Structures are given as structure tokens and as C-alpha cells.
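Long-time lurker, first post. I've been practising inverse folding by hand and with some scripts of my own, and I keep getting stuck on stretches where the C-alpha cells seem ambiguous. Below is the full C-alpha cell string for one chain I'm working on. Before anyone asks, I'm not after the true native sequence, just a reasonable design that respects the backbone. If someone could post their per-position residues I'd love to compare against what I wrote down in my notebook.
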């Protein structure tokens, strides 16, 4: 996997690190995880030969890799948050998505307690769906998590065999 070169300020940072008691082990691991591409320089500058530090670095990298692999799409994550915040069912979330609603704006519609002329959000979504699509609910309901899982499977199928996923900012 190709990594961009580290920023110019990062090389000087390694030299500035001074071991303070037992904290230098943690500092070294922290720097190796943040400053990709400077591992050898950090090990040389801090004179690290402790296998525990190197093992801790490997464990942190594995943890970071796992976190990046399971990272959801930001748009889908917003719908998951909206479902929890407004107590919507999977079907209501799917209806709102098909209607083109913005998950960040659902709070403006879900204030029927303060504005009594408004319908509760759940009923409003169902009412609009019936009005525009002529049916009370979608034929097939798929949760947002399931949709994300299916997209990930599709992405894995398109990837050539043996090639690892590229982890990085998304």
C-alpha cells in the first residue's frame, strides 16, 4: 500500500521527543501510529529495542485497521442516528430515504409537541409515502445496516482476488 510522504514538520518532531520515565514507551507507540512512514526514524531516535513497544504498535495498527474496515458511510450513519433520535422503524427510514428527506432536518419536522398543528414525524412520513407512491409501505424493507453490509459485500466481490482493501481517509 502506498503512503504519502510524512509532512516536513514530522521529522523534527522525532528528535524533540525526550524520554520521561516510563512515558517514553507510550510516546513512541503514539508517534509511530500517527506519523506513518517515520517508524524507523522514531525507533532510531528514541533507541527503542523494547519488544513490548513494538508489539503494542502492531496491536494498535491492527485495531486501527479493524476500525477502518468497519467504518460506515457517513450518509448511512446519519440515517442510523436519525432512526435512533426520532424512534423511527426501519420501514419509516426507508420511506423517508425514498422520499428524499434529509436526515439532519427531521428534527424540524418532529416537533409536534411544541407545534400542535403538525403531525408526528412517523405518521407524516407514512402519509407522504402513501400520497406520492400510492402504497402504505415499501414492498421490501431493508435496514440501513443491512444496506451497508450489502454494499460492502458488493465492493468485496468487485475487488480482484488476493488484493487487500486500501485503508485510508474516506
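-- Answer (accepted) --
I ran through it position by position. Result:
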Amino acid at each position: 500500500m502506498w503512503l504519502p510522504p510524512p509532512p516536513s514538520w514530522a521529522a523534527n518532531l522525532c528528535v524533540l521527543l525526550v524520554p520521561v520515565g516510563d512515558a517514553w514507551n507510550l510516546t513512541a507507540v503514539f508517534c509511530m501510529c500517527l506519523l506513518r512512514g517515520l517508524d524507523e526514524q522514531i525507533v532510531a531516535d528514541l533507541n527503542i529495542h523494547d519488544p513490548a513497544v513494538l508489539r503494542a504498535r502492531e496491536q494498535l495498527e491492527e485495531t486501527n485497521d479493524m476500525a477502518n474496515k468497519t467504518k460506515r458511510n457517513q450518509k448511512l450513519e446519519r440515517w442510523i442516528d436519525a432512526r435512533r433520535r426520532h424512534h423511527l422503524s426501519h420501514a419509516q427510514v426507508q420511506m423517508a430515504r425514498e422520499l428524499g428527506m434529509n436526515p439532519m432536518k427531521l428534527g424540524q419536522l418532529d416537533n409536534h409537541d411544541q407545534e400542535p398543528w403538525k403531525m408526528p414525524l412517523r405518521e407524516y412520513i407514512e402519509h407522504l409515502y402513501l400520497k406520492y407512491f400510492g402504497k402504505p409501505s415499501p414492498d421490501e424493507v431493508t435496514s440501513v445496516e443491512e444496506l451497508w453490509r450489502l454494499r460492502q459485500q458488493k465492493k468485496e466481490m468487485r475487488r480482484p482476488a488476493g488484493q487487500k482493501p486500501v485503508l485510508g481517509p474516506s
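A couple of notes from the structure itself: The CA atoms of residues 25 and 53 lie 6 Å apart. The first helix runs from residue 8 to 16. Happy to go over any region you disagree with.
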